[in-house]
Design brief:
heterodimer, A: mainly alpha, 8 helices, globular, disordered C terminus, B: mainly alpha, about 75% helix
Chain lengths: ~270, ~120
């Protein structure tokens, strides 16, 4: 039984948890907002908000159903190893994609293009039959928010459960959703100016650091300085990521700038 | 399939995409890192130094693999739509607007592929 497993999480890990969840949720909600605004433009705000609201409700339900039993009943060591592996998986995935985008190997996520494609897809179908059009808009808004939100749910449950801070993690995710929705309502358009890739890079570094930390803790290894080693891990992974971006960018020929908008896709971001 | 079944399938598919997706090597690596930490947990220094180092190796390998994948897919597209050919028949040189159109189409395809991943 690791020594640290019985002790409550420190302020450092709580702060990193709140920042990681907020960042992850903000990135995903910016992407979801694009779909919701595209639905609102073509099918009306009522349908878009109904779809988004239903998806948010389903996500909250998933956190309650998946997170609370984990916090109450799962053995802490097993939970931390499993959570560590999960966070590592998510973090490495985010980092890989963000590094490739930052280095210009793959194009960055373009909210304007996603918006245009969703509007095109919705405009091309559902003419004439109002009810069918509404159902389709509802489905696209639901799917957009729900699919983007699943990853946030995983992060909230895993980070919250491993530190017994499900409430703080949920509140942080909720705050990010409110901030993004508020800004989206104010400007009434997709947030294409948000530096999504940079945010993804930062959150990826945090998730990877948490994953590494919890795998060690769950396996019974006491990190030097307990959770004070988290900022060290974050610093190391951030430095490595910066180096990887520079090396990949140097090895990669400059990519052609996207000149047109993709079409023919539904609401899959 | 009823609505609950469809929702369960949607969740399952979303989870698979997020967790495994096009990087199954990360799932294997995460499992291997857990085994490494559990087996060596009595040798604290080895895990404290080795675990982050292995994570860095996995990340670097993932980026390298992603870059290679991208290059090979670009090369495949280029060869399938290339004006160069091995036949003896002379091919007309594409005009500037044709080249520009091909380039636009290619960048559009690249863009669509990455945007929707």
């Amino acid at each position: 039984m690791p020594v640290f497993a019985a002790t409550p999480p420190g302020t450092t890990s709580l702060v990193v948890l709140v920042l990681a969840v907020f960042g992850a949720c903000a990135v995903e909600m910016v992407e979801a907002l694009t779909i919701v605004i595209a639905v609102a433009t073509t099918r009306g705000w009522r349908v878009a908000l109904q779809g988004a609201g239903a998806a948010l409700g389903a996500l909250v339900l998933l956190v309650a159903v998946g997170g609370v039993p984990l916090v109450r009943y799962a053995p802490i060591d097993v939970l931390r190893v499993a959570v560590g592996a999960l966070l590592l998986l998510l973090g490495l995935g985010w980092l890989r994609k963000a590094v490739l985008r930052a280095a210009g190997v793959i194009p960055e996520h373009d909210e304007d293009a996603v918006y245009a494609a969703t509007v095109d897809a919705l405009s091309a179908s559902g003419h004439g039959d109002r009810r069918r059009a509404d159902t389709e808009g509802l489905g696209v808004a639901f799917k957009g928010v729900f699919l983007e939100g699943i990853e946030v749910v995983l992060i909230v449950i895993s980070l919250g459960a491993s530190q017994h801070q499900l409430g703080a993690a949920s509140a942080s995710a909720g705050a990010a959703a409110v901030v993004v929705a508020g800004v989206g309502a104010l400007v009434a358009r997709q947030l294409s100016g948000v530096p999504e890739n940079l945010m993804k890079l930062v959150v990826g570094v945090m998730l990877t650091s948490f994953g590494t930390f919890w795998i060690g803790e769950g396996a019974g290894v006491h990190w030097p300085g307990s959770d004070a080693s988290l900022p060290v891990l974050i610093g190391v992974f951030a430095a490595v990521t910066t180096l990887l971006v520079a090396l990949t960018r140097r090895a990669e020929p400059p990519m052609e700038a996207p000149s047109a908008v993709p079409s023919g896709h539904g609401g899959q971001p | 399939m009823n609505r609950t079944g469809r929702l369960a399938r949607l969740v399952g598919r979303g989870l698979w995409d997020f967790l495994i997706g096009d990087t199954p090597e990360f799932a294997l690596a995460a499992g291997a890192l857990v085994i490494f930490a559990v087996l060596l947990h009595h040798q604290r220094a080895a895990v404290v130094a080795g675990l982050p180092a292995l994570v860095i190796v996995v990340l670097a390998a993932g980026v390298w693999h992603g870059r290679r994948q991208r290059r090979s897919s670009t090369a495949t597209k280029a060869s399938s739509g290339s004006p160069l050919n091995t036949s003896d028949q002379a091919q007309p040189v594409p005009s500037t607007s044709e080249r520009s159109s091909r380039s636009d189409k290619k960048s559009q395809e690249n863009h669509a592929e990455a945007t929707w991943r």
